[in-house]
Amino acid sequence: MNISIYSYKKFLTENLNSILAFLFVGGSTFIIYWSVLELILHYIKFNFYIAVTIAYFIGVLFHFTVNRSFVFKANQQNIKIQSLKYSCVLVINYLINLICMFIIVKLLDLLPFIGIAVSTFITAGSNYFIFKYWTFANNNLKNLEN
């Protein structure tokens, strides 16, 4: 596969709206995630691992639903297959999240919110491509080669 600056420009031009929508959904998910985490940590007073888990899965439900219908317009495809693929990505993202939380909170003695910011940054970039060309794909692999 020959990758050039023209290829990048073409990709950005053809996908700008969905990239911006993906970033908006990601930002909205982050706000939901952060808010739920704040509520659980400071008002319910759960352990941060439990709080991260609850906040993560609430964010996931929002993220899957809005990306599926709004960003990638994949409502007509098999939701069971999409859910399974999405779950695979989530498991990897969740492990990255817990590792970041352990390193940042336990080893570096920083706030849990810094761990969330770091893990979100790590996973966000690659997720657009994984979702577009695998999770919510509609023959998008053929489009990638063109």
Can you describe this structure?
- The chain is mainly α and 146 residues long.
- The chain has one domain (5-145).
- It contains five helices and no strands.
- Helix 1 (5-44) crosses helix 2 (48-71), helix 1 (5-44) crosses helix 4 (112-135) and helix 2 (48-71) packs antiparallel against helix 3.
- The longest helix is centred in the N-terminal third of the chain and has 40 residues, at 5-44.
- The protein is globular.
- The model is unreliable at 140-146 (pLDDT under 50).
Write the layout of secondary structure elements.
Layout: H1 5-44, H2 48-71, H3 79-107, H4 112-135, H5 140-145
Question: Keywords, please?
Answer:
146 residues, mainly alpha, disordered C terminus
When the domains are counted, the total is 1
Q: Percent of residues in helical segments?
A: over 70%
Tell me the structural class.
mainly alpha
Large-scale geometry = globular
N-end to C-end Cα span: 9 Å
Report the uncertain regions.
140-146
The largest sheet is: none
Number of helices: 5
What's a quick, concise take on this entry?
This protein has 146 residues and is mostly helical. The chain has one domain (5-145). It has five helices and no strands.
